[in-house]
Design brief:
three-stranded antiparallel sheet, six-stranded mixed sheet, alpha/beta, single chain, 37% helix
Length: 341
């Protein structure tokens, strides 16, 4: 009955005032007028997210002496590296690759972020570095496994602790020549399981021409060996993302300098490194690309790094595990096995 009367109702609704508040006329059809409030969902999401806080886990890899800890401290303007946090006592090179993680809560503008820095002392420092990436790959996969086991628990937590590695900063020595075989092998193996961002450390040891030539050579070598680094081309959602990410990919690997020391330059206090020729200003784009790396890593792509980790790398691991095992059986909270890291 209602369906048969629908054309009549539509016809006569044009010739009389609507009995419903907010129903008005616009052009040839009627539209609802007045404020609904669906735009407040953004504010609702913001408040909810700010209450919960954020997790961000960054791994730093490279042989000793490349300024890894200093650069991370500079990025987050805090003493967040393991050396700054009292790790390790004497700075001896381990006999094998170790995994050291330290967490801090950083707050800015009312936003809290639990930052975990995962260091890999011993990487690339041995006489024989064969398969030295295995402990790192094992650690990354163990974090996926912990997350997966929490997901399949019958009484799982409302908010699963996220220890998955969202980003791996890989430090390349500023040789000016080419990548080492170790660099190639590491990135070839690990790019399949984690977001790798290659950076050229201590770039102030090269002239501008040497730096640009080295960057170009590194990009060509990565392309030749089929090594994909973040942001990967296939993960661009639309043309806007592609255009933005293409500019980033053209600038990579970022040639950076890190420093937690301040100097007076032209009446301003700046972070930098003092040399015989003057002060290399860390945040000066004419001196190095630290500001580009910081803006990319923290201000524009931090959330995307987390999403690619969850939607691509973790889902790939999850699908493989469930396929290999014929599905994981639900685990009770008491029987959850966690890796002893």
């Amino acid at each position: 009955m209602l369906a048969s009367n629908l054309p009549w109702l539509l016809l006569h609704s044009r010739n009389r005032q609507s009995p419903f508040p907010g129903l008005g006329h616009s052009g040839s059809g009627s539209t609802l007028l007045g404020y609904i409030g669906i735009d407040t969902i953004i504010e609702q999401m913001r408040k909810k997210t700010m209450k919960a806080g954020f997790d961000f886990n960054i791994m730093i890899v490279g042989h000793s002496g490349l300024g890894k800890s200093t650069l991370v401290n500079t990025l987050f303007k805090s003493q967040v590296s393991r050396w700054s946090s009292g790790w390790g006592g004497e700075h001896k090179i381990p006999k094998t690759v170790e995994i050291k993680a330290v967490s801090h809560v950083i707050e800015e503008g009312g936003v809290k972020m639990k930052l975990t820095v995962i260091d890999t002392p011993g990487f690339g420092d041995q006489i024989n570095n064969e398969n030295c990436w295995d402990p790192i790959s094992k650690y990354i996969n163990e974090q996926y496994e912990k997350f997966l086991k929490e997901e399949v628990n019958i009484a799982r937590k409302k908010r699963i602790p996220d220890t998955r590695v969202h980003c791996c900063l890989y430090f390349i020595s500023p040789t000016g020549h080419s990548l080492r075989q170790l660099d190639i092998e590491f990135m070839k193996h690990l790019s399949r399981v984690v977001n790798i961002i290659p950076v050229i450390a201590k770039s102030d040891t090269m002239t501008p021409d040497e730096k640009n030539e080295f960057k170009h050579r590194v990009r060509k070598e990565l392309e030749t060996h089929g090594i994909e680094y973040y942001p990967q081309n296939e993960f661009d959602d639309d043309m806007e993302d592609k255009n933005e990410n293409d500019k980033i990919r053209e600038a990579m690997p970022f040639a950076v300098v890190g420093s937690d020391k301040e100097f007076q330059v032209n009446g301003k206090r700046v972070l930098g490194r003092k040399t015989a020729w003057g002060v290399v200003e860390v945040e000066n784009p004419n001196h190095c690309e630290f500001a580009l790396l910081r803006d990319f890593l923290i201000r524009s792509h931090l959330q995307d790094l987390k999403e690619v980790t969850h939607n691509i790398h973790y889902e790939t691991y999850r699908a493989r595990r469930l396929n290999d095992n014929g599905g994981l059986h639900p685990i009770s909270a008491n029987n959850t096995q966690e890796s002893n890291l």
